[in-house]
Amino acid sequence: MKKLLIIPLLVLLSSANQLVAQTMAMPDTTAFPCQTISIPITASDFPNNIGAIYLQVNINSDALQCTGHTSGTIWGYLININSNPILISWSVGASNINGTLLTLHFNYSGGNSALDFSPSCEVASLIPPFDLINVTWVDGSIAPEPTTTYYVDAAVGASGNGLSWETALKKISEATNKPLSPGDNVLIKPGSYTDSVVVKSNGMEIVPLTFDVSVSDTNKITFPASADLSCVDVAGYPGKFYAYLGRSWKGNNGVYKITSVNKVSKYIIVEAAEFVPESGAAADSSKLQAAIGFPVVYEKHSANPETERVVLSSAGISGERATLHVGKPTSTGDFNVNEANYNIIDGIDITGADQTGVRIQNSKFNVYKNSRVYELDSIGVLISGNSSKPANNNFILSNLIYNTNSKAVKIGIQSESSSNNRANLNHIKGNEIYSSGAGSKINFNNAIDVCRYTGYTIIESNTFRNFKLKSVNRGAIEIKNDVRQVLAYANFIKNIDRVNSGTHSIFALKNNGNNNKIFNNVIADSAVIDNNIYAFWVNVSTGTYTSGLIGYNTVHNVDNGFKLESGASSVDLTIKNNIMNLDLTAPDHFTIIGTGTYSVSYNCYSSIPFGYSGETGRLVADPVFFLPTNYLSPYGFSLQGVSQCLNSGNPLSEITSDLRNEVRNAVTPSRGAFENVISSAIWTGVFNTNWHDYRNWDIKIVPVSTLDVIIPDRALDPVISNSNATIKTLQQSTDARLRINSPRTLTVTD
Q: Which of 641, 639, 485, 513 lies closest to 573 in space, CA to CA?
């Protein structure tokens, strides 16, 4: 009797298990924004008597967009992928449905989404009365792919797995050999690293390079209506998305971390920006444009980044093509590397290389910033590519480059053919390029060398100082033949000398240039040295020049002005609205070679020039600079209110702002790099709290009695402690603080 009771109980348990064993499931998965993902719907443990299946799958349509489907174990289904929930139905017949019923394909925009079976889902039996079958429904989900941080510390005894400081890697190259993905970080502790590093990683392009963008509100970038910002997932990846802003004519170029996005109104908000309003134009590659990336970041990890350095040296390592090479070399030569795109390298100093310091080869949208490149036998930074893999849209930002023996920065390779000289839209901004100390490496052939067939290079807001040109017939900034669309503006260039005789210049422009513009620069020499340096040398002895410009530049105490060579009857290059306050010992304003003429007008000269005697709008006068003996800042060469150069020029339609990004008068602009008299100084506190440190002020000049002072709320408030201060007026925001240490005083004269 006991045995008979047990058998029916086992039958009941077996039947119960059969009721719940039939399962319909979707997986949990992760992905990066803008990836395509495939979600299978699987069936298991179903009998062969299934008559019909009806499914509804709910998704978050902000994160997922269904793009299609692939059949699986059974055919004959109906599907509507454009609805939410997605509707799927089968009329099956007697067949085995187990396995993958079908696969749904999605575009993933980022964020989180459940993949939910609706309560309305049904599976019915083929056998009358066609009862519904009990099913276990297993929902799935999609979430952001996790990112990884790797740690590097030269001080560890031996390398670990790199996933914590306790198990850090010992060499930077060990980190670059990891399978890095978009959004990953490599944190590097200060120290000395003897290594040859190849960056092979690729971040992700989220929004491709887009024209017709605009900037406003100091930190807002607006894209055209056609742009797709759906994959900018700042919630899923905070601080991981960057805007790459280029071809600005008003100082807006740079790479900015995105803090928020409006996907409907098509704009993003970025941090650490002070945009001047500017707009690009549809299908115009010469004007403002932007892309959005999801990069891999290599950065110094330090609480004191100015004093603690990551120093990478390849001294003694043979066979390297550069100490830091971006792009994986292959066996087929220098110009066929595997590209490495969307990487940010922040705070890695380079020294001791017997070749190039940093080489970006065949790769795009890379950033090298906040670093030092020094004491090299060759070139500081080299960017080059070829026709199949151009080196485009790379950014060299806020670095110190000195004693690099040959060149500081080189774009392209002059000896190469057009197919191996494809480097476009590269940006050199905010760097300081100079010589330091004594020795064989302190002088340059060129500070910046822009080689033939390259285009759209930006050279902006750099300081070039205190070095000699050591090779004959060179320019500190040389824009060679067959180069197009260079913008060189807002640079401060001072105290450039030469080693050998021959023609030397600050800017050198060669034949067959096209649309190269040199404007709003300050060129000065603090010493009276008869070194025969020219401010500008335009050598069009053969070929032509198209739509060139040298305009709104301020030149002070340099030996000579222009050396103009031309073999053609005329040259399409305009020289206009410049201030040429040359060295009074024996200035040569114009050296003219050849029969061609340039378009010269509305320049101001400190003494009567003997070239272009019929120049329209010529002014011979003392420009009356603000602080001409202050060579720490270009703003010392702004104009005083009595200057005849104020509001006496003639407009250039393309140049609508000055070196300070103040708007030019549309009818009678001022000559030289500055439109208006400087009347105020704004505290930035970017270096320290010292009132008397010129670097803490927006004009790089410690305020004097003629200046109004504005102190906004900054992380570092000013302290007057070294000496007394005198200003005209003081405007201080509510949360800002000014401390005056006894016995110092602040005198406000107005």
A: 513
